[in-house]
Amino acid sequence: MSWLEVEKKTVIVTGGSSGIGAAIVKELCHLGVKVVNTDLQEGTFEHENLSFIQTDVTSRVSVEQAVKSTIDMFGKIDALVNNAGINIPALLADTNQLDSPYELNDALFEKMVNINQKGVYLMSQAVSRYLIKEGAGVIINMSSESGLEGSEGQSCYAATKAAINSFTRSWSKELGKLGIRVVGIAPGIMEETGLRTASYESALAYTRGKTVDEIRAGYSQTSTIPLGRSGKLVEVADLVVYLISDRSSYLSGVTINVAGGKTRG
């Protein structure tokens, strides 16, 4: 038994097929945790401790079925990691061109809000109803540094993450008295997640008045980070492991910034 004693826990991870979610899934599985990856597409990672349930986090029916299936398979849920999210860079107003594909519109707004915010609400509600009966459990909400600081060209994404921070604070007050902890994680500049598509980079470059090459060069610029490097995905995963463990039993209602000491200053 390890110091963290997480071996017998069962954890749902949303969006666990890629990016930070995949790193969390791998770390938990290797430590003996029973992990249920709820995503639209199954990932490439395979492990005896990993189960996959195709889930649309924006659909109440899909979410509630995933939670029920998890309980049917393992008899319990100890923690939920709300990781599923999407980021589509877009300006509030693009004065350079009419009908700009890089201007925020209703479709983009609703897509990001539905996945990043509504999805967290639906999953948390479904899981918390079970956790309340047990009188214990942890909900971890994946936020972002942009949710704390804002982000040029990514205002809608940043706003959804700011909303997640408020969910974390509010739900910790509601659920704490029932034995449930709610904690947030806000990663800063991280190593390559595999989610930086050409379309994402093109949109981000346009919204910031830069070239794609300049955006790519910026990934390795760490002058604003006191530790002098980008974060590793496993460092976020390690924090998740600690937060689901009973060793973090007095941590609730906070969003932890995993950013190497980077702040506005």
UniProtKB/TrEMBL annotation:
Residues 9-192 form the Ketoreductase domain. SMART domains: PKS_KR (SM00822). The keyword Nuclease does not apply. The keyword Ribosomal protein does not apply. PROSITE patterns: ADH_SHORT. SUPFAM superfamilies: NAD(P)-binding Rossmann-fold domains (SSF51735). Gene3D superfamilies: NAD(P)-binding Rossmann-like Domain. It comes from the Bacteria. Keywords: Oxidoreductase. One of its GO terms (molecular function) is quinone binding. This is Sorbitol-6-phosphate 2-dehydrogenase.
